[in-house]
Amino acid sequence: MTTGSSAGPYSAILFDIDGTLVDSNDAHAQAWVDAFAEAGVTVDRSEVRRAIGMGGEKLIPNVSGIDPESDPGKAVSARRKEIFRQHWLPQLHAFPDADRLVSALHDRGFLIVAASSAKRDELKALLQIARADRFFEAATSSDDAEHSKPDPDIVHAALDRAKAAPQDAVMIGDTPYDIEAATRAGVASIAFRSGGWTDADLKGATAIYDGTWDLLQHLDSSPLARAARPAAARG
């Protein structure tokens, strides 16, 4: 656990899902590598891994130079989706205490909203894997935003769903793209190391924790120690 300046109280929590609640970043990376390989394109897996957290429209040109709107780019994106859903999704598991953390935050009165770069159908499956879907009152995906993280579009969409002002929300994520997107939207952020990034990479977060289990253990001393509104005040 590493804490920065104290902040809050907040009324809404915007959760990234991949690498934050579900251990899926390596699976996403391998699905992209395999999809590129099937198209005859060799990419550096480490570069792909570091691009996980962006949407495909940013990842594809960053690691391959291919236009994501070209026929080859669209073909790789579609094949990546097939590989991920058919091979990797059934093998994924939630991080320890993911459901307990979301439940605890929900019980404290926070409004819980997903703010993910995943496609809508993938996001639904990931929330089920996390066993936390019942605690989410709204969800935004890459389908709800013109530009993916680190652009702030998804965070803005999540704020709209939560009917929350930027200063009343906090983003929880695992990549520098989550932190940057939140910052550009005027939203504070809490980072997890569970996605494979270092503290230096996650600079700008109000606090950094190992993962769901770590934040749950330190919840009472975290920026989420209290919510702006008790659960009974929701309408």
Average pLDDT, rounded to a whole number, is 93
CATH-scheme architecture of the largest domain: 3-Layer(aba) Sandwich
Q: Tell me about the biggest sheet? A: 7 strands, mixed
Number of helices: 9
Report the CATH topology name of the largest domain: Rossmann fold
Unreliably modeled segments: 230-235
Give the N-terminus to C-terminus distance in angstroms: 34 Å
Spell out the helices and strands N to C.
EEHHHHHEHEHEHEEH
CATH superfamily of the largest domain: HAD superfamily/HAD-like
- Number of β-strand runs: 7
Which oligomerization state do the chains in this entry correspond to?
A: single chain
Highest CATH level, the class of the largest domain: Alpha Beta
Helicity level, as a percent range? 25-40%
Shape: globular
DSSP strand (E) fraction? 5-15%
Explain the overall architecture.
The chain is of the alpha/beta class. It folds into 2 domains: 2-24 and 93-230, Rossmann fold, CATH 3.40.50; 25-91, DNA polymerase, domain 1 (Orthogonal Bundle), CATH 1.10.150. It is built from 9 helices and 7 strands. A 7-stranded mixed beta sheet has the order 1-7-6-5-2-3-4, with helices on both faces. α6 links the parallel β3 (111-115) and β4 (138-140). α1 (25-38) packs across α2 and α1 packs across α4. It is globular and about 50 Å long. It starts with a strand and ends in an 18-residue tail after the last helix. Mean pLDDT is 93; it is low at 230-235.
